[in-house]
Amino acid sequence: MVDDGHGAGVTGGRRRVALAHDWLCTFRGGEAVLERIAASHSARHEVVGVYSMFRGRHGLPVDKAPTVARLPATVPTLGRLPLARDRFRRWLLPMYPRMVETLSDRLGRLHELAPIDALVSTSSAAVKGMRAPSGAVHVCYCHAPARYLWSRASEYEGGLRGLGLSVFGDRLRAWDKESAANVDVFVANSRHIARQIEETYGRSAEVVHPPARTAYFTPGDEPRGEFWLAVGALEPYKRFDLAIEAAREAGAELKIVGEGSCGRDLRKAVQRGDRVEFFGRVGDERLRELYRTARLLIFPQIEDFGIVAVEAQACGCPVLARAAGGALDSVLNGKTGVLVDEESARAFADGARRMPSDALACVRHAARFSEAAFDRAMLDVVERAMAGRKH
User: Fold this and answer.
1) Same structural domain for residues 200 and 65?
2) One domain for residues 97 and 176
3) Span 135-163, mean pLDDT?
4) Cα-based angle 256, 260, 261 (whole degrees, multiple of 5)
5) Residue in 198, 174, 179 with CA at minimum distance from that of residue 138
6) Sheet hosting strand 73-74, strand order edge to edge
7) Deepest of 208, 338, 359, 388, by most Cβ within 10 A of its Cβ?
8) pLDDT reported for residue 254
9) Which residues contact 36 (CB under 8 A, 6 or more apart)?
């Protein structure tokens, strides 16, 4: 089942570009990246549509992804079924290769009507396995090699999804490696992910950091307080438990923003004497106010990149982070924050005592990760790839 309405023909030297994304169901960091790519490429080229394994009932929200929401969406029939497109899509892992093959065939048929110059995919699952039509180039912005197969496979054990992986995991890993050959140019969101791409697929990757809203997240006039701030989904790998322990060790007040599956357990972990406040989910204006008034953002997890750390610095707030993952790119140790080598509450408490307080340095560093910088970099990568393609 396909939504038609694709344009045809190239006018004024504009190239025809197709986009691909794993699923159009929720709006998070990956969808923000997709929207920036769609908007910047639509301004210079003809974006013919977006190809995805799954699409929610209404697609992505128009207020957050206006460009993507206007594009024709091509989705396999299975990916439009109510149960599949919502809570059960991750349990359909064995079907992903076939769904990607279907998308490749649909793109190929469009190419026969009017040639496609480039396929630009954004992926942390399977859509990077799409085949670009003959003569077209495939550029993949990779958030991470499929975590359920590689870096976090152990977290997906149990339940129907875990059962599927235990039966089909080896076959899916083989397909994932093999289908990486369909990508002409890999782009990683951090040096950490570039290393994972090399280790997993044996491929090099350019690094283009994801876009941060540095025009919105800016310093304010509010006096900076003494509390620590932690922001993100309350999930195990985010290590909010370690943030609570570190604040306790340092005798600091901690404010936590976010919701997730660990919320109840984290609240139970708070001890008498701890100064921990849970805010749940907050709007952008309130979040910006917290960034502007916190003494520091504590960032104890290992992230692929971690846009929260950049948002905080854009507001002049230094970051106390684990010396691993994307934080190695986003935080300047001793200048815009402190990178902690040891995963312990005491190490983070010690790091907080060494925290720099140069708000201007934080803001200047965060500017490197602006939306405009991302747009320029991705357009350059895609246009260089198109210029060097084989006809």
Assistant:
1) yes
2) yes
3) 74
4) 125
5) 179
6) 73-74, 46-55, 16-24, 118-123, 137-142, 185-188, 205-207
7) 338
8) 98
9) 211, 371, 374, 375, 378
pLDDT at position 2: 37
Distance CA 125, CA 102 (A): 16
Query: In 3-state terms, what secondary structure has residue 116?
Result: coil
pLDDT at residue 158 is higher than 70:
no
Q: How far apart are CA 54 and CA 58, in angstroms?
A: 11
Q: How confident is the model at residue 152 (pLDDT cuts 50, 70, 90)?
A: low
Tell me the per-residue pLDDT of 220-265, one tens digit each, with 9 for 90 and over: 999 999 999 999 999 888 999 999 999 999 999 999 999 998 999 9
- Shared domain for 180 and 46, answered yes or no, is yes
**Please, which residues bridge with residue 231 across strands?**
257
Please give the order of strands across the beta sheet that includes 276-280: 276-280, 254-257, 228-231, 296-299, 319-322, 337-340
Residues 248 and 331 in one domain: yes
| Strand positions, DSSP E, 137-267 | 137-142, 185-188, 205-207, 228-231, 254-257
- Using only the alpha carbons of the chain, give its radius of gyration: 22
pLDDT digits (tens, 9 = 90+) for 80-138: 988 777 667 877 888 999 999 999 999 999 999 999 999 999 999 999 999 999 999 99
How far is the first Cα of the chain from the last one, in angstroms, to the nearest whole number? 30
Residues 89 and 144 in one domain: yes
Distance, CA of 162 to CA of 164 (rounded, Å): 5
Question: CB–CB of 129/119 below 8 Å?
Answer: no
Q: Could you tell me the residue range of the domain that residue 265 belongs to?
A: 228-369
Structure confidence at residue 12 (pLDDT): 39
> What are the DSSP calls for 14-31, one per residue?
PPEEEEEEEEES--SHHH
> Positive or negative, the Cα torsion across 207, 210, 215, 218?
negative
Count CA within 13 A, CB hemisphere, residue 222: 18
Owner of token pair 């480039």: 118
CB atoms within 10 A of CB 322: 25
Cα(349)–Cα(86) distance, integer angstroms: 41
How is residue 91 annotated by DSSP? G
Element (H, E) at 293: helix 284-293
3-state secondary structure of 213: coil
Q: How many domains does the chain have?
A: 2
